[in-house]
Write a structure and sequence with these properties.
It is an enzyme of class 2 (transferase). This protein has 188 residues and is α/β, with parallel strands linked by helices. Helix content is 58%, strand content 13%. The chain has one domain: 3-Layer(aba) Sandwich (Rossmann fold). Bound molecules: adenosine-5'-diphosphate (ADP).
Length: 188
């Protein structure tokens, strides 16, 4: 079974945790745009320097930059038979660009999972993570802004995938292992 999966959901819904577990279960690479940006920030690359300004403000990195990065990543060998995208696409322009990349490769998406969680829960989780990990975009103001940007720019994308019959909504509240099982069941 080839799996080309998108994981979508607000910051703090647990996408990163679930992406790693699903990738393992399905033997596909988990591709997190947030992780790739953070690795570039840490390595002080040109891409990292550019991305950092946006990330620290809770804004999205410009589409052209993000799209190019994802195109490069998806063209690597390990993504040929399948992949799980965590944190991409996040804008309508990114949806269009991903469609173009998939068409060019002669492939299509298998499913889009929307991991849901209410705002109070995700703010609480992100604040708890901020205390532990100290991510530079985890201050309360920036967290609130990231949630607004998500609601405005990314949440509407679920309608596009719902219309295509690809969307599976999964409750992101509960035990980690239980949520993984829910997602796998929803994809079957
Ligand atoms: P979260 O889901 O908790 O917001 P991520 O690790 O997915 O965090 O992303 C962190 C930051 O990286 C985002 O706030 C944004 O600045 C940038 N980023 C990640 N993915 C994208 C994307 N697809 N488009 C634009 N910016 C992105």
């Amino acid at each position: 079974m080839s799996s080309r999966i998108i994981l979508i959901g607000p910051p703090g819904a647990g996408k990163g945790t679930q992406a790693a577990r699903l990738a393992e279960a399905l033997s596909i690479p988990a591709i997190s745009t947030g992780d790739i940006f953070r690795a570039n920030v840490k390595g002080e690359t040109e891409l990292g320097k550019l991305a950092k300004r946006y990330m620290d403000a809770g804004e999205y990195v410009p589409d052209e930059v993000t799209n190019k990065m994802v195109a490069d990543r998806l063209s690597q060998d390990d993504a040929r038979e399948g992949f799980l995208l965590d944190g991409y696409p996040r804008t309508a322009a990114q949806v269009a660009e991903l469609d173009r990349m998939l068409a060019e490769a002669g492939t299509e998406l298998s499913g889009v999972v929307e991991l849901t969680a209410d705002t109070d829960e995700v703010v609480a989780r992100l604040l708890a993570r901020a205390e532990k990990e100290g991510r530079s975009d985890d201050s309360e103001d920036v967290i609130r802004h990231r949630l607004d940007v998500y609601a405005e720019q990314t949440q509407p994308l679920t309608d596009i995938y719902r219309e295509r019959g690809l969307l599976r909504e999964v409750d992101g509240l509960g035990e980690v292992a239980e949520i993984t099982d829910r997602i796998l069941a929803a994809l079957r």
